[in-house]
Structure formats: structure tokens, C-alpha cells
Write a structure and sequence with these properties.
The complex is a heterodimer of chains A (255) and B (285). With 255 residues, chain A is of the alpha+beta class. In chain A, strand 7 and strand 8 form a beta hairpin. The longest helix of chain A has 22 residues. Chain A is globular, with a radius of gyration of 22 Å. Chain A starts with 48 loop residues before the first strand and ends with a strand. The N terminus of chain A is likely disordered. About 6% of the residues of chain B have low confidence. Chain B is α+β, with helices and mostly antiparallel strands and 285 residues long. Chain B has a domain of 197 residues: Glutamine Phosphoribosylpyrophosphate, subunit 1, domain 1, CATH 3.60.20.10. Chain B has a five-stranded antiparallel beta sheet. Chain B has a five-stranded antiparallel beta sheet with strand order 5-6-7-8-9, covered by helices on one side. Chain B has a two-stranded antiparallel ribbon with strand order 3-4. The chains are: A alpha+beta (255), B alpha+beta (285). At the A-B interface, helix 1, helix 2 and strand 9 of A face helix 1, strand 4, helix 2 and strand 12 of B.
Chain lengths: 255, 285
């Protein structure tokens, strides 16, 4: 994705003017002067997609490993998944520099929590921490689209999905990133679970077995790689269950 | 440039003596602001990037028995439905509810913050905060961020010592007391149904059905509203969720499909085709 200039100088002749967005001094020109605008954006989009699916006693989090800028691929081997706590893993797509800063911030806050409370943070607690951390940058947001996955205190899978400024929701499955508009309808078709808002309440967790969920994730990324240029190379899958956390890889299209 | 963040500070120091090992994380959180040449233009771009989920229908009204609050559950980002199961009725505390319209993160964060401040008020004053007080707290915070791009259109509904209370508060700093409100892109449709059917002396079931119908009709006509219609009731003992119905299913409940009697039914009859084929072959030969 091109980093868009906030405002593109209106005419070529502007090049003759002394370029200084903050300066009030300008050489006067015989023709109309255009206001010079800053055309550096602090954001970039490194692309990629992530998916998380919650099960009765497991949680699957997956993301591709391609990192791009514009039409270039920077690397084929970049992990977008970060382990925040024993039973809590986050996958983020968007601007990876902001993602890295966010991960560091959360890791530090988790360390303080462990020192103060002598235990690991639970997944729902980490979910709210992430929401607040994102909202504290409300006027200069982290360009990071996150899904958080893990096991809650009872060992049931839970997935939380976020927007860039911290609004979050507990769901049964979610996808974020450049391929999410391709992936989400497919997940809705396969996994659509009753809304947690219904009364009488119905379980939001998917009825799939762990192996079926992993298979579904592989299928979904294979399809997304066909039609999204920013998704591909390799798929990293992290599975959290009562036995712990394990990691799997699968090759995707490299074109 | 530092903003007034007294809304975020708690009364007691959370981390102990400031400035020690945990510097940087210990200080009361404040909103950083970027320093570009064109702050407004940058904020417009940041808002575009964030694209707050809006497009919604929420409503609340006071009647004889208390306050009825209802909302849909769809969140849209432009034309894409980002979620069909957003909680738009936020439980501030056991006897007060807030509704969400506008930016989802803004509403969630500031309602959570309001809940904290209401609890602190209870602890400091040994009594519950009134709906008037709670709505004023929120309105003052939002007024101080006026012009910064927050997008919140909320109703604070609750039951306090003076009875039922309902206030509309928005991110422009407006705060209105009233008996009936509807907020969001679907609000014109909801108002039509609500204003038509409203009577002060309704029973709880009638009021719940009116609220449900109003949300249903708004989701029917407004593309940005949909999902699940939730209805909450706030009474002297606090709030209670009365129903959560998928609006697709509500359609068939209100307009059931009556199987019509069939006059002539098309049935596949094998022998007719064979006879035709014989006739064709006979003609060809």
C-alpha cells in the first residue's frame, strides 16, 4: 500500500518555491502560490492477514508470514504472532513497527502485573489491557489490527477481535488484515455461531474439533493467498490447549 | 500540548511513589498528541484510518414502570459489516445503562471510564450517584475533548432516588434530559414506530414489545442497522435484559409465511415424454 501524502502539491511549478512547510518565508512567484503540505506519513501498511478460531478446549491463531510495503516484499519470513502470556497469544496485521511497539508495551505491562500479583494474566484481562493500551493512543493510533486468542480461566477457547483504536468484542472466530474481507465470509459460512446477544443465551464457541479447525485455517489461507496479493509465502499456526502451546507451519503461494 | 486527563486519573496513587523503577508506566496515563504542521488534516487522516464503526439504531424511553432501552447490534465500516454482534447497551453499573452510537472504541472506553468514576463516587460519598450526576460527568469529559474527533452519541438511562432518569449525551458536548430518545442512522424509522405506539402507562411487556418493534423496523429499512435486537428494562431493582432476538427471525414472527393452497401442481410424468419421443422418431423415419 502506498503511503499517501496528506496533500499533494497542486502544480509542478511549486518546486521552484522554497520548500518548508513550517516556514512562513517563501520566494514570491509571479503565479499563484500553493500551500506546501507535508507529504510524509508516519504510517505504512505491511499487509498480511490473521485468523483466530476458538474451540471448546482449544484456540487456533494463524497468520501469514509475508511482510510487504507497496508492491515490494520485504521478507517472506516475518512472524506476526506474539505470545503475551501462558494462555494468551496475539496476532496483528497492519503497520509492523506499530505492532512491534504495541507488543513490547504489552509485554512490559504483563511483567509488572506478574510482579504485583504473582500470577500470569488471564486472557480476558489481557484483552481489556490491550483495549486500553490502544485507546490511550486514540489521537495518534497504533496502525495495528489485532486478534487475541487463548484460553479463559475455565480452559475454554476465547477469541477477541479489535479495531485500531481499541474497541473489542469476544467472538467465536475472527480475521483481520488485508485478506479479512475474503476470509471472513468463508468463516461465517462454516462457523457462524449464535450471537452472544441472544436471549436465552447460546454458546458462541465452535463445535469443531481441533484438527478440523486447523484444517479449516489452512484452507482459508490457501484461498486468501489466491486472491490477495499481500497474503502468502508461509502460514504460521499456533494452537493453545490444555497441554500448552505448539506451533505449525505450512507453505503458501510465493507469488 | 497536553490534554486535560483528569478524567483518567484515579484518586489514590496506583503504583506508589512516582519516578522510581516503574517510570514511564507509573505516571497517570495521558493522551499523547502528534506534532505535525497540520493537526486537523492529520486528525482527519487518522480518523479515516480508524474509520469508526457507526450506523446504528438505539432508543430509550421512560414510562410508568421505569426505563426501556433497546439497540441493534451491527457495526459497519463504510460498506463492510465488521460485526453483527456488537454490545451496544453497556452496563455501567447494576442500575445504570449506557447506549453506544458513533465510534465503538470511544463509546466503550468512555463508558467504562464513567463506570469507574461512578464507583469512586459511591465509595467517596457512601451513596449511589444519580443519573443526573453520571450524565454530567460524562458530558463534561466529552466537552473537554470537543473538536478532537471523538464520535459518541449516547443515552444514559438509570434508576436513582428520584425515580427513572434518561439523558442524551453527545461528543459535541450536548446533554439533554428527556422522556424519549433514539440515536443513530436508523433513528428516524425507530422514532416513527416509537412515537406512534408510546403511552406513559404501558405495562413492561407492552413497552418491551414497542421497543423491539421500533428496533426491528429500523433494521428493516436502514442498511447500517441489523443483527440482534436487544431490549433491557431498568426498574427500581436495577436493570434486567428482557430479550435478544435475531431481526431476521423477528421478520417471520411478525409476518409469518402462510402456506397457500395449491390449485395445480406440476408433477413429473414419465410416460408423456416417451410418447412424444416415439412420435418424433416416427416422424423422422
Amino acid at each position: 500500500m502506498k503511503s499517501d501524502a496528506i496533500n499533494v502539491p497542486q502544480n509542478e511549478i511549486a518546486a521552484f518555491l522554497y520548500f518548508s512547510p513550517l516556514s512562513t518565508k517563501c520566494f514570491s512567484a509571479p503565479f499563484t502560490m500553493t500551500k506546501q503540505q507535508a507529504n510524509w506519513s508516519p504510517y505504512d501498511n505491511n499487509g498480511g492477514s490473521c485468523v483466530a478460531i476458538a474451540g471448546a478446549d482449544y484456540c487456533v491463531i494463524a497468520a501469514d508470514t509475508r511482510m510487504s510495503t507497496g508492491y515490494n516484499i520485504l521478507t517472506r519470513d516475518y512472524s506476526k504472532i506474539c505470545k503475551l502470556a501462558d494462555k494468551c497469544v496475539m496476532a496483528s496485521s497492519g503497520f509492523q513497527a506499530d505492532v512491534k511497539a504495541l507488543q513490547k508495551q504489552l509485554a512490559a505491562r504483563h511483567l509488572i502485573y506478574q510482579h504485583q500479583h504473582n500470577k500470569q494474566m488471564s486472557c480476558p484481562a489481557m484483552a481489556q489491557l490491550l483495549s486500553n493500551t490502544l485507546y490511550y493512543k486514540r489521537f495518534f493510533p497504533y496502525y495495528s489490527f489485532n486478534v487475541l486468542g487463548g484460553l479463559d480461566n475455565e480452559g475454554k477457547g476465547c477469541v477477541f477481535t479489535y479495531d485500531a483504536v481499541g474497541s473489542y468484542e469476544k467472538v467465536g472466530y475472527s480475521s483481520q488484515g488485508s485478506g479479512s474481507t475474503l476470509i471472513m465470509p468463508f468463516l461465517d459460512n462454516q462457523l457462524k455461531s449464535p450471537s452472544p446477544l441472544l436471549l436465552p443465551a447460546q454458546d458462541a464457541v465452535t463445535p469443531l474439533m481441533e484438527a478440523e479447525a486447523i484444517d479449516l485455517v489452512k484452507t482459508v489461507f490457501a484461498s486468501a493467498s489466491e486472491r490477495d496479493i499481500y497474503t502468502g509465502d508461509k502460514l504460521e499456526i499456533v494452537v493453545i490447549n490444555a497441554d500448552g502451546i505448539r506451533r505449525e507451519y505450512m507453505d503458501l503461494r510465493k507469488d | 500540548m497536553k490534554l486535560d486527563t483528569s478524567g483518567l486519573e484515579s484518586v489514590a496513587p496506583v503504583w506508589g511513589a512516582p519516578g522510581e523503577l516503574v517510570d514511564g508506566f507509573a505516571a497517570a496515563p495521558s493522551f499523547e498528541l502528534p506534532n505535525p504542521a497540520d493537526f486537523d488534516g492529520f486528525q482527519k487522516e487518522a480518523i479515516q484510518m480508524v474509520k469508526p464503526a457507526k450506523g446504528t439504531t438505539t432508543l430509550a424511553f421512560i414510562f410508568k414502570e421505569g426505563v426501556m432501552v433497546a439497540a441493534d447490534s451491527r457495526a459497519s465500516m463504510g460498506g463492510y459489516i465488521s460485526s453483527q454482534s456488537v454490545k451496544k447497551i453497556i452496563e455501567i453499573n447494576p442500575y445504570m445503562l449506557g447506549t453506544m452510537a458513533g465510534g465503538a472504541a470511544d463509546c466503550q472506553f468512555w463508558h467504562r471510564n464513567l463506570g469507574i468514576k461512578c464507583r469512586l463516587h459511591e465509595l467517596a460519598n457512601k451513596r449511589r450517584i444519580s443519573v443526573t450526576g453520571a450524565s454530567k460527568l460524562l458530558a463534561n469529559i466529552l466537552y473537554s475533548y470537543r473538536g478532537m474527533g471523538l464520535s459518541i452519541g449516547t443515552m444514559i438511562a438509570g434508576w436513582d432516588e428520584t425515580g427513572p432518569g434518561l439523558y442524551y449525551v453527545d461528543s459535541e458536548g450536548g446533554r439533554l434530559k428527556g422522556m424519549r430518545f433514539s440515536v443513530g442512522s436508523g433513528s428516524p424509522y425507530a422514532y416513527g414506530v416509537l412515537d406512534n405506539g408510546y403511552r406513559y402507562d404501558m405495562s413492561i411487556e407492552e413497552a418491551a414489545e414497542l421497543a423491539r418493534r421500533a428496533i426491528y423496523h429500523a433494521t428493516f429499512r436502514d442498511g447500517a442497522s441489523g443483527g440482534v435486537a436487544s431490549v433491557y428494562y431498568v426498574g427500581p431493582n436495577g436493570w434486567k435484559k428482557l430479550s435478544g432476538d435475531d431481526v431476521g427471525e423477528l421478520y417471520y414472527k411478525y409476518y409469518p409465511v402462510i402456506p397457500s393452497t395449491v390449485e395445480q401442481e406440476m408433477v413429473e410424468v414419465e410416460w408423456e415424454v416417451e410418447v412424444e419421443q416415439e412420435m418424433v422418431e416416427g416422424a423422422g423415419a
